[in-house]
Design goal:
The chain is α/β, with parallel strands linked by helices. It folds into 4 domains: about 70 residues, Alpha-Beta Plaits; about 90 residues, Orthogonal Bundle (Fumarate Reductase Iron-sulfur Protein, Chain B, domain 2), CATH 1.10.1060; about 190 residues, FAD/NAD(P)-binding domain; about 140 residues, FAD/NAD(P)-binding domain, CATH 3.50.50.60. About 35% of the residues lie in helices and about 15% in strands. A 5-stranded parallel beta sheet has the order 7-6-5-8-20, with helices on both faces. A 5-stranded parallel beta sheet has the order 10-18-11-12-13. A hairpin with a 2-residue loop joins strand 14 and strand 15. Helix 6 packs antiparallel against helix 7, helix 7 crosses helix 10 and helix 8 packs antiparallel against helix 10. The radius of gyration is 25 Å and the shape is globular. It starts with 7 loop residues before the first helix and ends with a helix.
Length: about 550
């Protein structure tokens, strides 16, 4: 066990205390197995759990994992404060394209944060990460100053660590599942530690580790996170891999959808170059239609559909056909090129631009507008407390001058001579996070606008429905109600924890990606479950590739 405690004086005055109700204790030893500090043991005479409060750090893992509610912990959490994130920009961001968030300044700073990790015997952070990275082990390697080993450990489950460590929604995944977070405290900065490793260790190449795929020919449709991960896994086994990409530049959403001030180009391009160096052929400007996919299935050993959910959703709002209304994909691509080249877009300067939607994509659009000199206003029908966007990104966007109008929607758009001029907004009301936000009558307000960017989500291309069948995939109710025993016992699902529920629901998509949709066709990422995360898509791509390789060796 390795953890940083408070000073000895404070620890003496403020200690956590473990209370055990002996009448409820069944001697199952769940708490003892999972205690990261060995503060719990068995009284072998009475066969009851006992606690040593001097060893307890107040993480409350025992309280969460006891199946009989026989344990409670009171008192503080004995853990050092989390290292704060430093932002590189002030509020003036026009023309700036430098990376917003700074990483750890040096190894000592990273080690200080790494020492906050409890190295839990049954790490809930592992379950919260869609890729199931061995987080405690790579953090332990950082504590031991061995960044190359930390990189090696991460590479076992992730081929996009430099990317995931910058774009993942850590509060809803690994960090939200950290023992300290589940105890109501600040989690270990897992994402930032992963970034430190990948920024300072040697980049991992594609290394052939087996010959399982020798003689195997696989086509991957799409070069986004899912396609990259599938290709990486297959190439590592010696398979012949070809990727078909409809855009001019490979990378999918990593290229066009994430601004460079969040994900620098040299980081996003690294895995693509590694694949090409390993002999993977990437054919750009090659869209794949359902007819082409049918032919590919006949001429190759397997096809992995990883083309994402490319069709932008269009809400039912009058006036969307006016000039000046565009979707987020088109905007982000144009804005990224302009910021990279330093070429201003005159029509954005001083313009008031509404961004409809509350996702991370909507925030990326709004922050790009601010960098291009426009006034960005995010219109989001949800209450702020129910928003699905990351709190840190909302705070960053506000700091950069983005205006948020939560609990608001666009009722209609108006224009003159076919060009957008005005937006009629309406207030909305929402009772719960899972309820629909409804318009409030009599609250309409008309404002002048120059442009509207639709960031209301994406859906699957319906043309593929004849091949893929009904999609996106949804977890059966029985699966949601009866989680795997290992998940229940870990404590991640205790008290109907929403982070635990999210993690368990993701498992269905992961398991499904390892099964062919039919015959030689596999679906992964957005193509399988609808709009997904970078890390979730990557994990599914790896699992599909492994399933193809295992099926080949067992046949």
């Amino acid at each position: 066990m390795n953890t940083t405690r408070l000073t000895a004086e404070k620890a003496t005055a403020l200690k956590p205390e473990v209370k055990i109700i002996e009448e409820r204790c069944a001697g199952c030893q769940e708490c003892i197995i999972r205690c990261p500090t060995q503060a719990l043991s068995m009284d072998i005479i009475r066969w009851k759990a006992t606690a040593d409060n001097d060893l307890c750090v107040g993480c409350r893992q025992c309280e969460r994992t006891c199946p009989f509610s026989a344990i409670s912990v009171i008192g503080p959490r004995l853990v050092a404060e989390r290292t704060p994130t430093v932002f590189n920009n002030g509020s003036e961001v026009i023309g700036k394209n430098n990376e917003v968030r700074a990483g750890f300044a040096n190894l000592e700073e990273a080690i200080k944060e790494a020492k906050r990790c409890l190295n839990c015997p049954d790490p809930t952070c592992f379950r919260g990460c869609p890729a199931h990275n061995d987080i405690p082990r790579f953090i332990e390697a950082i504590r031991n100053r061995d960044l190359e080993l930390a990189s090696e450990i991460i590479s076992k489950t992730s081929c996009l660590p430099g990317i995931c460590s910058r774009v993942c929604n850590w509060p809803a995944q690994c960090e939200g599942s950290c023992n300290w977070a589940l105890a109501g405290g600040e989690p270990v900065a897992i994402g930032k530690l992963e970034r430190f490793v990948t920024d300072n260790a040697k980049p991992m190449p594609v290394r052939q580790t087996s010959e399982k795929g020798k003689g195997l020919s696989v086509v991957i449709v799409g070069s986004g996170p899912a396609g990259i991960a599938a290709a990486w896994e297959l190439a590592s086994a010696g398979a012949t891999v070809a990727i078909y990409e409809k855009d001019q530049v490979p990378g999918g959403v990593l290229h066009w959808g994430i601004p460079s001030y969040i994900l620098p180009d040299e980081v996003s391009e690294r895995p693509i170059k590694a694949l090409q160096d390993a002999g993977v052929k990437i054919y750009t400007n090659n869209p794949v239609s359902p007819e082409v996919m049918e032919r590919l299935l006949k001429t190759h050993d397997a096809v992995i559909a990883a083309q994402g959910a490319p069709v932008a959703e269009r809400p039912n709002i009058p006036g969307l056909d006016l000039a000046g209304v565009i979707n987020a994909t088109a905007f982000l691509s144009k804005a990224k090129q302009a910021l990279a080249s330093g070429t201003p877009i005159p029509e954005f300067r001083g313009a008031q631009i509404l961004v409809l939607g509350g996702s991370d994509t909507a925030i990326d659009v709004a922050r790009s507008i601010a960098r291009l000199g426009g006034k960005a206003v995010i219109i989001h029908r949800r209450e702020e407390q129910f928003s699905r966007a990351r709190e840190d990104e909302i705070a960053e966007a506000k700091h950069e001058g983005v205006e948020f109008r939560f609990a608001t929607n666009i009722a209609r758009l108006e224009g003159d001579n076919g060009k957008l001029r005005r937006a009629v907004l309406v207030r909305t009301h929402q009772k719960r996070a899972d309820s629909v936000a409804e318009a409030v009558k009599g609250t309409e307000q008309t404002i002048e606008v120059n442009m509207v960017v639709l960031a209301t989500g994406y859906k699957l291309d319906s043309h593929f429905s004849t091949i893929f069948g009904p999609l996106p995939l949804r977890q059966p109710l029985s699966d949601r109600l009866l989680p795997d025993r290992r998940w229940q016992a870990s404590g991640i699902l205790t008290r109907n924890n929403p982070i635990g529920k999210l993690a368990w629901e993701r498992e269905y998509g992961l398991r499904s990606s390892a099964l062919p949709r039919f015959g030689k066709l596999w679906l992964v990422g957005d193509a399988l479950i609808g709009p997904s995360t970078v890390v979730g898509s990557m994990a599914q791509g790896k699992l599909a590739a492994r399933a193809i390789l295992e099926g080949r060796t067992s046949s």
